[in-house]
Amino acid sequence: MAASDLPFRGPPGGAHCNRRQIAGGGILVLCAALLPLGSAAAGAGRLVPPPAGDPTSGADVSGPQTIVVSGGCFWGVQAVYQHVKGVESAVSGYAGGAPDTAHYEAVSSGRTGHAESVKITFDPHVVRAGDLLRIFFSVVHDPTQRDRQGPDSGTQYRSAIFTTGDKQMALAKNYIEQLERAGTFNQPITTRVEPLSGFYPAESYHQDYFVMHPGSLYIMINDRPKVENLKLLFPNFYRAKPKLVGDTPNHS
To answer: Can you give the residue ranges of the Peptide methionine sulphoxide reductase MsrA domain (predicted)?
Structure first.
């Protein structure tokens, strides 16, 4: 298969990088200049207040639940939730667009309506949807950045929550309003909340990318700090051994 150039996803700070898909589904990142490892793009996490109420919890809740979130490159988002207790699976994929454009090369154009997303299946008796959203706003990404995160820009990197029911919708909208009223962030929250119309798993070479490529400069700069912040800010939810997609073959 001929190599094809893919949109930029490399270190910040003016380093010129070219991401290239290669035969077998690998991704080669070529950089003309690199940041020192000490200048981590993800920065420090911010422990935001918990939701004032969570209508998705209660004694009547049974069985696993799902929610889909988007917060920049799905490699780091997936890695964070794979380390959360009660999460049964965290699958990288695409949401917000049509099925026929749900593949990496098309989504990377920024014109498909899709966002790089992660579908989280979780046990609500161990971790609630409200807890997952608190982690989302605390360590996963900066919700004040519109259509970008760190070095990545485009609508496919937007901040979004795709809900799977009316209670999740109410939770997400009320929580954002709560954080806005409290002035939690210095800038307005840009996170969009919409019902999930479809989720399409990403290509296999994107799954478990954080674990499969621990020496990747992109991972070290942008994503490893997120997992470290999860451990620091949410010790009661952090688990050392991640729940990988490779451990759950049926991840559609």
So the answer is: 66-218
